[in-house]
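Before our next group meeting I need something from you. Please put the record directly below this note.
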Amino acid sequence: MNTLSAVPFWDWTVLLIGIAGFVLSYIESKDRLPKWAREWLSKIGRENVEQAIENAARLKGLSEAERRQEATAYLIRLSEKKLGFSMPESIANLLVEFVYQQWKRRV
C-alpha cells in the first residue's frame, strides 16, 4: 500500500511550486479587468471615470447605489459625446465599480 511518506521529496517540491504558481497567478489577475473592458476604459479614459466618481461623491442626500447610478449615467453621456455612441450600462457600471475600488483605497 502506498503512503504519503513513500512519495519522493522532489515530487512534493514540484507540487508545492505548482500550487504557489497557481496562487500567485490568481492574486495577480484578481484585480484585472477583462480585455474588452480594458479597451472601453482606455477609450473613455480612467481620469474620466474618476471624475464621474468624484462628481457623484459630492452629491449630498444620495445613497451609495444612487451615487453609483449617477456616475454610470455620467459615463454613458460622456461616451455619447466623446465616442459618438452610447456605452452599455453594464459596461459603464463595471468600469465605475473597478475604478471606485482603487479610488476608495487612495482616498
Observations:
- The chain has five helices and no strands.
- Helices lie at 9-30, 35-44, 46-58, 64-83, 89-106.
